[in-house]
Amino acid sequence: MTEVRAEAAASQAPRHSRRMTGPAVVGRPRVTACVCQAAGCLSAGSDRVFEQVTEKLVGDGVTDVAVKRVGCLGLCAAGPLVEIPETGELFRGVEPEDVSVLVDRLKVAKGVATKPEREPFFERQVKIVLENCGHIDPESIDDYVARQGYSGLTKAVTQMSPQQVIDEVTRSGLRGRGGAGYPTGLKWATVAKQVAAPKYVVCNADEGDPGAFMDRSVLESDPHRVLEGMAIAAYAVGATKGYVYCRAEYPLAVQRLKAAIHRAEKSGYLGESIGGSPFAFHVELRLGAGAFVCGEETALMASIQGGRGTPVPRPPFPAAHGLWGHPTLINNVETYASLPVIVRKGGEWYSSIGIGKSKGTKVFALAGRIVNSGLIEVPMGIRLRDVIFDIGGGIPDAGTFKAVQTGGPSGGCLPEELLDMSLDYESLVAAGSIMGSGGMVVMDDTSCMVEVARYFMDFCREESCGKCVPCRVGTTQMYLLLTKITEGVASREDLEQLEKLGDMVRSTSLCGLGQSAPNPVFSTLRYFRSEYLAHIEDRVCPAGVCPISTKEPVA
Fold first, then answer.
1. What pLDDT score does 230 carry?
2. How many of the other CB atoms lie within 10 Å of CB of 265?
3. Per DSSP, what are the bridge partners of residue 323?
4. Considering all CA atoms of the chain, what is the largest pairwise distance in Å, rounded to the nearest integer?
5. pTM
6. Model confidence pLDDT, tens digit, residues 469-484
7. Of 372, 408, 354, which is closest to residue 213 (Cα–Cα)?
């Protein structure tokens, strides 16, 4: 590493895009200060922490400590975060006045043979997708390669046939992590058997669920891993062109993706003759304008092609008739990020993790009324209780847990009596929710479940593309009925109408947005019907948050 300095061009760039280096290190560093440079910590000032720690070490003449910028360390709400990996120490909420104390610790810290016991937030996790997050510089391909990066791709193109790669993915039991949970190997096999050319591979990075930031964090922290997964998939199905569809609202992810694509091409991991083989694969980045409906695959493809992002009926499915009428494989960020380790270690190793038909791990964004907000990765089959109270730390201020919403606007709200359920695809569906892409919003007893349902219905009606009547009109009418309930002017007949409308919207909407929009309503009615009845019959909001709570009770 070289002495800290900012090039003239970088002085005009946003803080988070500056290429800063640590102090000069003679030989192997004794310890390293890993400063989180993901969006959450950057918004709290971690770029300034990085600069100040580096400048302080240089000024003090310390030559055996490295300062390294890394991706997401997980505890997003506690940033800025700095970790000393050699000792296992994690410094939270580092402010400018804390830098001297941190540097003093770095001066005397030494790597230890046995690290101190880690807190449950980290100890209960199993990191596969996130194994590099917090360990590598997101903009350094050398860092990625040093941790076996691109070795899965190299193995695939030099030692395996495309069918062997598909067989390995099938054996792993990996299911699509974008929400539907479709078997990945089966989808790949369908695309591979198509004879039309060219074929395309698409990464769906259009993450739009309220409270969800899994894909953004992976792209910001380990973009090469996603590109490697896409290249492995392209080799398996016979594709030569790939697109990453990422919303423009993620500027840091976009910046690091662009840099990763450029560096992978220069290093021979993308482009022509990958790994010295005949296989060629090129990737382009496409930016979305933030329409939630573009997470639906047919709307996403329309947007990539330059059209309006609206869904179309299926079949035909993208596997046979996708981009520009050609076979197209679409998976999300987490699915692609799971692939390099599956190829490296084998499908049987991956399938040994998880439960039943839900294999491997799942990344979740913990948000809402919970102590440890942040990014986590857990094995399928873990209990909800373990996620919320062990990893998440429970409810702040010794509050009372009320519900957890999984699956974003398409999911459902699960009550306290289901905390011991297994976190897997089948169990969540049976409980009236879905896995979704991985958003997990925790609520305490200050939340009104009718208002929660109204909030998500408002989101769905705003994000509806308007193409089909059930979604365009039905979600609006459901929102208006929920508003009447929260205002204390609804009747039993309105509640019956709400349920009938929900059935109609779910069964007749064109795409997944409308088909799943009623889920928060149905799940809250299933587990919290008493709150609806309190609003309607007693004209009272039990949580005291709805407009009805400001009115005089009806005699």
1. 98
2. 15
3. none
4. 82
5. 0.92
6. 999 999 999 999 999 9
7. 408
